[in-house]
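User: For a reading group we're discussing how well predicted structures match intuition. Take Disease resistance protein winged helix domain-containing protein. Before you show the prediction, I'll give you the sequence so everyone sees exactly what went in.
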Amino acid sequence: MAKRIFNDEQILKHFEKRVWLCLPEMSEIKSFIQLILESLTKRKVEVASTVAAAAPHRLEKLAKDHCWSIFKQRAFVDVEVPEEIVIMENRIVEMCQGVPLAASVLGGLLCNKEKHEWLTILDGNTLVAGEDDNGENSIRKILKLSYDYLPSPHLKKCFAYFAMFPKDFEFEKDQLIQLWMAEGFLHPCQEITVMEVIGNKFFQLLLRNSLLQDVKLDEHNNITHCKMHDLVHDLAGDILKSKLFDPRGDGGENLSQVRYFGWDSPSDQIYKINEPGNLCTLFWKSNYILEDMLLSFKFLRVLNLSSSGIKELSAKIGKLIYLRYLDLPDTNITALPHSDKTKSISSARDYFPPLMED
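Assistant: Thanks. Here is the predicted 3D structure of Disease resistance protein winged helix domain-containing protein, as structure tokens, for the group to look at:
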């Protein structure tokens, strides 16, 4: 019931940002709220000052030797740092501006690169050249550089797709790969033909470049979940901006280009999409969805209804012939409509409610 209220249309209209907090049974609410406020961290000092129980603690920039150490660990794992890089230590530390994420991302960018590429990246790229005393500006430039050097346009699409989810979202690796597959981002090659293998390779590349973090492992030390730093998420959002529905824009955006409707896109404004036939992905959190509207998204490939409160799907969903991924956890849907046309989405059954009938 609480989850339904959290996702109710009236709540969505009045609160732009919402937080869902799971507490242990018999928790003392006051103590938890106090801990949340005391541990709040913000890059904007005025925000921290408003909510803090004490004066905000300003983090100093990372010492140069520590910054250099992080870079080396990421760029040259278990190998000696080449002399060509050692002589550029001051230049590299200057680029990172004392920001650990910058050192990690820059190190991940140089990992497994050839010597001539090092010079191109470190000495010849205008994105990081010149004086810059702002740590946040520096990391944004380095993040953009890391994105630009991703080895394929398909991998770049996989990276930008993270903007579909809210900041601080915990991603399930296998589910991400299934989404990439459904979107058509993964393509077989001569060496690898299994889509899941290609997706796992892409995931590892993003992780190696420090574009993902906070991984969780299973009992066999396999990665199961991860998160994305909020500055990295900002970059993904900038890349996907023209194709992701965002009503907070200046009103001049061309909504005919919208391809994606994500978790942060308000359900009550979906009618603003003036070319529904172009929508490929719909993450829906309202308790109902009009059948005619859903069917107007005729090229829909991904439909995520998790936690939406929807009780049943029309048999006409089979008319969405391009639909490859259907996500239904935490809904009241217990069965899919019986239709030969729904077989194309059977690969997503891992994300169906546990009580769903065969």
